[in-house]
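Request: Give me one sample?
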Amino acid sequence: MARKFAVGGMLLLSVVLLMLVLPGGANAAGTDPLEQVKATVSGILGVMQNKEMGKPDKKTARREKIMAYVSQRFDFEEISKQTLAGNWRELNTEQRKNFEQLFSELLKNTYIGRVEAYSDEVIQFEKEVFDGDQRTKVMVYTKVVKNNQEIPINYKLMAKNGDWFVYDVMIEGVSLVRNYRTEFARIFNQEQYTGLIKRLQEKNAGHEATKG
């Protein structure tokens, strides 16, 4: 049986919580990364709160709508590139696309159940800090509040064509990308590209088998 990827549950939960912040006067998406994130979140919450979409026979459609919003805000190509780091340069175009497709599927499959199990977590947006004068990258600082506990979660976004896209998530200083990078580097070094792809396929197949 394939060894489980060493991915912290809280890191994955942090990705979910980005999508579950309760909107506070969210405006239409604009140049502000905070407002773009809030607009995406509002759309996801709208799907989750729709009673019609909550019916058992609408489960697949509901998941598809949620994932459509996720895809709009996450840059899976950049996440894939930074996760593989130096190994990314060794891959050809087809291999890169294949890895990106499987890796993004893994991320989506891993936390869709958590999205649907959302309870009473609330996110407080603290601030946004741009990286340099060009303002092409930004860190959005947030806190997850539940049961009087606060967990700092920060999101790295980059600008592309007037929009902002998440390319990493950090919880208490631990990076989602770095966490996967360590595990994938070990697999890549031992089993090469084909071994890593096989692991991803097996992981995704396991998620498909449990869907219902």
Q: What stands out?
A: Helices lie at 9-19, 33-49, 59-73, 76-84, 93-116, 176-210.
